[in-house]
């Protein structure tokens, strides 16, 4: 079931916006309507669905209506026409009180310029959402502190926003949004005001948090690289209308029209995609409990000739090959440990695809993809690299 | 003017003959006469103002011996500026008030101070809510702005006349005239301060489900505080500038001494009274500014 469903959502700015609706339905463009009536089309009959717990990126250049669209989703701007369903409730039909309840309990927002209150301490900023709900002081303090810990800002409770760097301020914005424990997070160009390195850190951190939290995140950006990095699915907007909705791969490999094509043609896929993007779920053997028989069975089932061996916490131990395991099984050996080869090719989840080519082409086995704690997150097989590159300029250095 | 031009001028003038003399003045006069039907209302207002100015402020100030008054105010101002490590204000207050006492204007000072504080209090109590209302409603802003312009530009002498008609003479019409003249900055800057709160903060407040009241008290007013305080500071200064004019309708205080001095062409008296007003003005200005640190 869709978490959020948007149907024909339209916003027209100006006096008597209803006449603009008619013109839009007749198929007139934004420019024609502006010329004819003086009305500005903010969002033009947008329709899409957002699944539960996905990162849904809305991307477009400035003036494409993406910021208006996200404000229609929590009615900071009232729609002119169309419907927004959240958990099967129509937001557009709600009265003030019902709307407040949704804003307090279901969705929070993170702003481009952070939107922190300068006269409040960090802690009191994070508490704001709970405070307006009337949560008592002790409970909201506790939740706010938890939330600050989540974004790594413990110890800054009593500082003021202007004492913090931009990146830290946006963490506060994120903590404030998380303190309410909403199921939907609206992020309006949340990282656009940060410098590139900090931005990348924040993107990583958001993804990491998302793994734990499983929120539905609607993320607005004008930056295609950012969209490709964090989006489970991406919507591309132009002149207030939705041009294409799809996974990053679909957008890259199958642009819906010329506009999207021009957008994505500059993207160097080998720099955009990281090992984490193209890895697949590995078969693995747990060294503490699985013996040679289990290992052999698993390789047979999956039709592979080697399998990675991990500890119970997924930390990588090494790899075993089918021929050696099958020999051990014939000899009735019960212990897998002597068979494990410790020398295996590994990369980090964040390694750009660009840097994978050498390792991939020289390795007889799939490459293990590890996270910061050496835990096996996935494996990369040669064909995955090629298919990710397909359609783009594979040049000499590949 | 040559003769031929005079006749042309006369011809053009005759074009306007159909416009009758509009009796604007007598209209206003009869309106004021008509308003006197509500004299009980004005008596009520008069009672309230007289109570605040004379019974509360003046009586309280008169209880305090000057030396205690000076020391307490100096001490309080010292506490206010201690953090900034600039001790000009306590020094100014100490010697300034001492000078006023030494030239024998202490009683007049207390009267003037009561007048100014009462006018300021009423201006803030009326002005801030009006300013908030203006900020939230464009129509109200459109209606109130020209009224404020009127209040500020109409020469103060002009509304002394109806003030006397409604409130007789003494401190009360003085306060009323001061309020009319001094309230606009508080209203304007409250409106401005609230309207200047960055959109993103208003959106943040809304997005977390604040009620309009929560938004006002938790975001808009705290954000506008510095601007509103600047407006109140202006109101105090304008109220002070009214004390000499108010003396014309029998309001006591330092203003009356200035007014007398002008009438008698008494340079010594005029200067002493004038310098007392200046000292009071500077003290009130610096005190309110010290209360309003622009940045933490």
Structural overview:
The complex is a heterodimer of chains A (398) and B (296). With 398 residues, chain A is an alpha/beta fold. The model of chain A is unreliable at 391-398 (pLDDT under 50). The longest helix of chain A has 18 residues, at 196-213. Chain A is globular. In chain A, the strands form four sheets. In chain A, strands 6-7-8-3-9-10 form a six-stranded mixed beta sheet, with helices on both faces. In chain A, helix 5 runs parallel beside helix 7 (166-179). Chain A has two domains: 2-106 and 182-267, Rossmann fold (3-Layer(aba) Sandwich); 277-389, CBS-domain. Helix content of chain A is 39%, strand content 23%. In chain A, strand 11, helix 14 and strand 12 (306-310) form a beta-alpha-beta unit. Chain B has 296 residues and is mostly helical. Chain B is globular, with a radius of gyration of 24 Å. The N and C termini of chain B lie far apart (67 Å). Chain A binds chain B through residues 71, 74, 76, 100-105, 107-109, 111-119, 128-129, 131-133, 160, 176, 180, 186, and chain B through 198, 200-201, 203-211, 214, 218-219, 222-223, 225, 296.
* Structural shape of chain B: globular
Question: What proportion of the residues of chain A form beta strands (DSSP E)?
Answer: 15-25%
CATH H-level superfamily title of the largest domain in chain A: P-loop containing nucleotide triphosphate hydrolases
CATH class annotation of the largest domain in chain A: Alpha Beta
Instruction: Please report the two chains with the greatest interface, counting residues with C-beta closer than 8 angstroms to the partner's C-beta.
Output: A-B, 30 and 19 residues
Report the average pLDDT across residues of chain B: 90
How many helices of chain A does DSSP assign?
17
Could you spell the SSE succession of chain B in H and E letters? Answer: HHHHHHHHHHHHHH
Strand pairing plus helix content of chain B: what structural class?
A: mainly alpha
Number of strands of chain B: 0
CATH-derived topology of the largest domain in chain A: Rossmann fold
Task: Enter the CATH topology name of chain B.
Answer: MetI-like fold
The assembly state of the depicted protein chains is: heterodimer
Mean pLDDT across the residues of chain A is 87
Largest sheet of chain B: none
First-residue to last-residue Cα separation of chain B? 67 Å
Number of helices of chain B: 14
Instruction: Please bin the fraction of helical residues of chain A.
Output: 25-40%
Radius of gyration of chain B: 24 Å
Q: How many independent structural domains of chain A?
A: 2
């Amino acid at each position: 079931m869709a978490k959020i469903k948007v149907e024909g959502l339209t916003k027209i700015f100006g006096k008597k916006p209803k006449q603009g609706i008619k013109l839009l339905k007749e198929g007139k463009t934004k420019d024609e309507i502006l010329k004819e009536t003086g009305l500005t089309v903010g969002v033009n009959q947008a329709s899409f669905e957002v699944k539960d717990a996905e990162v849904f990126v809305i991307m477009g250049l400035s003036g494409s209506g993406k910021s208006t669209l996200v404000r229609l989703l929590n009615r900071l701007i009232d729609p002119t026409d169309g419907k927004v369903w959240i958990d099967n409730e129509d937001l557009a039909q709600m009265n003030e009180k019902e709307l407040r309840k949704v804003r307090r309990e279901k969705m929070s927002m993170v702003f481009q310029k952070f939107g922190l209150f300068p006269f409040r301490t960090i802690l009191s900023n994070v508490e704001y959402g709970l405070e307006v709900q009337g949560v008592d002081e002790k409970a909201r303090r506790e939740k706010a502190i938890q939330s600050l810990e989540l974004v790594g800002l413990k110890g800054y409770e009593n500082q003021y926003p202007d004492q913090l760097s931009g990146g830290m301020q946006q963490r506060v914005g994120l903590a404030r949004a998380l303190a309410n424990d909403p199921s939907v997070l609206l992020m309006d160009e949340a990282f656009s005001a940060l410098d590139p390195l900090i931005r990348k850190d924040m993107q990583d951190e958001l993804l990491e948090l998302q793994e734990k939290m499983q929120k539905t995140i609607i993320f607005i950006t004008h930056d295609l690289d950012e969209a490709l990095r964090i989006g489970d699915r991406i919507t591309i907007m132009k002149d207030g209308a939705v041009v294409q909705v799809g996974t990053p791969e679909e957008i890259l490999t199958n642009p819906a029209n010329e506009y999207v094509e021009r957008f994505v043609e500059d993207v160097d896929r080998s720099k955009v995609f990281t090992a984490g993007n193209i890895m697949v779920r590995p078969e693995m053997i747990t060294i503490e409990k699985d013996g040679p028989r289990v290992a052999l069975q698993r390789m047979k089932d999956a039709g592979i000739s080697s399998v990675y061996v991990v500890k119970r916490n997924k930390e990588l131990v090494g790899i075993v090959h089918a021929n050696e395991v099958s020999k051990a099984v014939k000899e009735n050996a019960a212990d897998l440990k002597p068979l494990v080869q410790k020398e295996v090719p590994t990369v980090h989840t964040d390694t750009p695809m660009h840097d994978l080519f050498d390792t991939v082409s020289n390795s007889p086995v799939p490459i293990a993809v590890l996270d910061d704690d050496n835990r096996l997150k996935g494996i990369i097989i040669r064909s995955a690299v090629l298919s990710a590159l397909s359609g783009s300029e594979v040049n000499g250095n590949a | 003017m040559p003769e031929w031009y005079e006749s042309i001028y006369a011809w053009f003038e005759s074009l306007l003959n159909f416009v009758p003399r509009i009796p604007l003045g007598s209209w206003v006069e009869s309106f004021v006469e008509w308003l006197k039907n509500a004299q009980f209302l004005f008596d009520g207002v008069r009672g309230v103002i007289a109570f605040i100015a004379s019974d509360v402020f003046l009586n309280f100030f008169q209880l305090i011996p000057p030396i205690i008054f000076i020391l307490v105010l100096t001490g309080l101002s010292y506490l206010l500026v201690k953090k900034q490590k600039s001790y000009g204000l306590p020094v100014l207050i100490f010697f300034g008030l001492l000078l006023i006492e030494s030239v024998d204007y202490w009683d007049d000072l207390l009267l003037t101070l009561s007048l100014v504080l009462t006018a300021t209090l009423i201006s803030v109590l009326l002005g801030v809510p009006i300013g908030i209302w203006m900020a939230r409603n464009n129509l109200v802003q459109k209606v109130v702005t020209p009224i404020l312009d009127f209040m500020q530009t109409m020469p103060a002498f002009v509304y002394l006349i109806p003030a006397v008609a409604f409130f007789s003479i003494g401190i009360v019409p003085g306060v009323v005239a001061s309020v009319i003249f001094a309230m606009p900055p508080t209203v304007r800057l409250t409106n401005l301060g609230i309207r200047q709160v960055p959109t993103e903060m208003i959106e943040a407040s809304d997005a977390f489900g604040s009620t309009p009241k929560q938004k006002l008290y938790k975001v808009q007013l705290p954000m506008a505080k510095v601007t509103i305080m600047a407006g109140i500071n202006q109101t105090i200064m304008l109220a002070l500038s009214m004390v000499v004019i108010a003396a014309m309708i029998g309001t006591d205080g330092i203003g009356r001494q200035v007014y007398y001095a002008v009438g008698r062409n008494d340079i010594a008296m005029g200067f002493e009274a004038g310098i007392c007003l200046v000292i009071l003005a500077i003290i009130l200005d610096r005190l309110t500014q010290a209360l309003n640190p622009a940045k933490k």
